[in-house]
Amino acid sequence: MIARGCIRRNARQLTTSTEQAKLFKAVTFLHSNNTKKKRVVILGSGWAGYSFARTLDPAKYERVVISPRSYFVFTPLLASTSVGTLEFRAILEPVRRAPGGLRFYQGWADDVDFSRKVIRVEANAIDKLQHDLSPISASTAASEVATETRPPKGEVFDVEYDKLVIAVGAYSQTFGIAGVREHAHFLRDIGDARRIRLRVLSLFEQCSYPASPGGKDGKTAGKPLTEDEKKSLLHFVIVGGGPTGIEFAAELHDLIHEDLKKIYPELMPLVRITVYDVAPKVLPMFDKALAQYAMEVFARQGIQVRTEHHLQQIRAADGTLGSAHGGLSIKIKEYGDKEVEAGLVVWSTGLMQNPFVEQMVNKQFTAVNEAEAPKSHLLKDPRTGGIVTDGYLRARITDNKISDSNKTAISTAAPVLPDVFVIGDCAVVEGNESLPKTAQVASQQAAHLARQLNRSTDESIDIKSVSKPFKFRNWGTLTYLGGWKAIHQSSADTLRGWVAWIVWRGAYLTRSMSVRNKLMVPVYWFVNWVFGRDISRF
Amino acid sequence: MIARGCIRRNARQLTTSTEQAKLFKAVTFLHSNNTKKKRVVILGSGWAGYSFARTLDPAKYERVVISPRSYFVFTPLLASTSVGTLEFRAILEPVRRAPGGLRFYQGWADDVDFSRKVIRVEANAIDKLQHDLSPISASTAASEVATETRPPKGEVFDVEYDKLVIAVGAYSQTFGIAGVREHAHFLRDIGDARRIRLRVLSLFEQCSYPASPGGKDGKTAGKPLTEDEKKSLLHFVIVGGGPTGIEFAAELHDLIHEDLKKIYPELMPLVRITVYDVAPKVLPMFDKALAQYAMEVFARQGIQVRTEHHLQQIRAADGTLGSAHGGLSIKIKEYGDKEVEAGLVVWSTGLMQNPFVEQMVNKQFTAVNEAEAPKSHLLKDPRTGGIVTDGYLRARITDNKISDSNKTAISTAAPVLPDVFVIGDCAVVEGNESLPKTAQVASQQAAHLARQLNRSTDESIDIKSVSKPFKFRNWGTLTYLGGWKAIHQSSADTLRGWVAWIVWRGAYLTRSMSVRNKLMVPVYWFVNWVFGRDISRF
User: What region holds the External alternative NADH-ubiquinone oxidoreductase-like C-terminal domain (chains A, B) (predicted)?
Assistant: First the structure.
């Protein structure tokens, strides 16, 4: 350790890359020969990846995180930031600040060589993707990585691993519906929330000019908005009646009725919020009585809920409403030819696999580093396309013929890659295939896996002696409904109204959040309650 | 009042624009015939415009603010937000939330008809300009309004005024130096601060990849950064040794040495900060001893100050350093052909007039609404191009022949437009031509003018009986130097070191700030001191 520290200090004083490179190799060589800490590389900085990286013991393992996003997002409070109830930074945790220290590379995992245990990484610290005001979110823009629209390649380098944890998450699914990717806003990441916030506030400002030009000479260059056009722009459409969509509708309602009502009183009669879902019932994870209560709350608040409605297309509205103001025209099957106009569409339904996952499940490789070894590939779940794992969260592979040298680590009944684990939205745990893709499931898997690895670094020990298979415990579901009301359901109880609201606010303070944000979240709640939400756009 | 309120409530229920337009005219007609409150229209939302609008008595005047920016920026703390010592919203005040209520239109004043007392306004609530990550700031982009690169015109409408206050401020001056507008960052508005913050943090992340590709197959698509390239990217250049430039250098130093040192320790030997100025001495408003003390503090902190250096050109650096990483190559006269490379250039020197001001001073009009009246134009200051005013901040005009009907309001010795006032950076007060263009001067002019108008709404009274001419009181200058040291100079005393730092922090809490921000600023100072500045980029 002392020799290594000494070398590291000297390394800082070297000034040429050649000398540093030689020393880098020397350090690596040293690393392999001393008290070897296994290196665990985590792909992803979401609920699964970040929670796992934080919980893995840095005294036992070297932790390396690779992700195109350098921070973790506390997604249950994302809808609150999209209207200004909270500020964005209060729900971010920079990966580099994880307690205990870890190494971080901002980049995409392009490829993994499972035989040689090497990841090919492409750097992406150059901020080009995330700041376009167009609705395409960072996660969607990330999906363009696989297509020709990809930005210039950053530098490429390799990272070796002893153990690999794939936690790359999933993308929003558009079901191939025309216009969604170009015109709708997702709500899965901070960039999405920021764009939505700016769009909502801008729409109110755009509608706040005098109704008539009032110009004495009659010359006007731009056409002022008519009443009907303002009603179109102030129509806020949410597609998807799950917790994300419902909570966004609730938060938007609060923003409008607590703050914008005082600033733009004349526009209030023109505002509408509508939630569309293809299912017969919104909030499917709640029992019927609670879902019904939610609908009653929404009805009293004036939020329209249209179940069993199918969106077919989104396009720009006709004329300057579309071209200048960004107004949209939506085709809904149940309305035939009559299109619905709106100023904003938030798309919060459906997940699809990350292109990286698609690439990995189709990749042929040899499970062991031998020339004659038979080819394998990761087992893919036929329903969702995710990577199948066993109960110990190890990636399952398809080939049954395993060489003797690996036999102790692999169950002959269900072959796995013993050093590759998969958690979160991209994982499908055998025996638990129906688990939803939620933050709760992802963080429980992450905690389980971290404890499993922390218990023993000795790979010769049978995993069954250090760990049990993963079992999900449902801590219940909470959804905010607006107006200081919420609903909560768990196996123990159901709550509704302001009691559930208190649980809702309290629950979030205890999870996966730094001390800084545990402090800032209540500060923002208080300040925004007393002084109103901030409405500045920049 | 009751009738007017009644009409306003009914107006909200009308649903067609025709009906609303008729009512709008009816209200205007009613307005002219009842207890007439004069309408004061303020162009601008900076120190002069916002301070004036807040101080003008809403019981005596109808207040209307027109500005392309819907919020006021507390500029003395802008440098702090550009590195994360404070968050952006803590220094913003939305115009619409000014106490006592006022009407606001987000837009550009295109033209003013001084005879008919009408302003032609172009709406700009559609957010297109402010979110580009390229260095061109919102204020610079605003200057493109006058050129062909202007975005599509928003709706155009007219606003009538009884009194007009021109407070449109000034733009950053580039002295025609090639490459400044394209590659340098200004620091005058929130968009500028946000771009600088993202750029600084991105540069550190870009330099944090392994020195060698480490790829076993030797294939690399992007070329990794060499040591020298990292030194170029981590060279932060500030042009302008006035308080803005010095404070930014100081804040940047704090960010690097308090926070980034812990996150990117290996990059610290490569970081440099350099301040260039053409003058022989930086901080010209301070006496020699204090300026010298500032230089000593900077020297101990490792900040290089190069006085009497002239920047001639900025261009993209050669190769991928420029094309992929945004590195810059700077030509400095004193270095001959050898260019200086940098990752960021902050341009904080020089002001030039707003195109609106240039248009106004060149505009011929008749001071009174008569066909035969002689032409006038506003008096333009030959040195700065600003609009000249008398001691009562009324716009001076050039024509001496004034018709009898206006004689009581105009001094025959120095003709003015009695209902048009000019304050702030775009104003030049006769007898005070050497006043600097600072927030202090602008806010004192605003306060003076507001008190002058509040004292009497009766225009038949000679202005000299309600007001004295404007006189600037120098409350002193404060500049932060980094490392919890500052300098302060006023006619009463000079302070340096941590004592001045306490005055610096305390002074800002008392001025022009809402209660909300008076609370949030110390909260951020505390939280960022305990937990470190936030480094997430989105």
Answer: 476-534
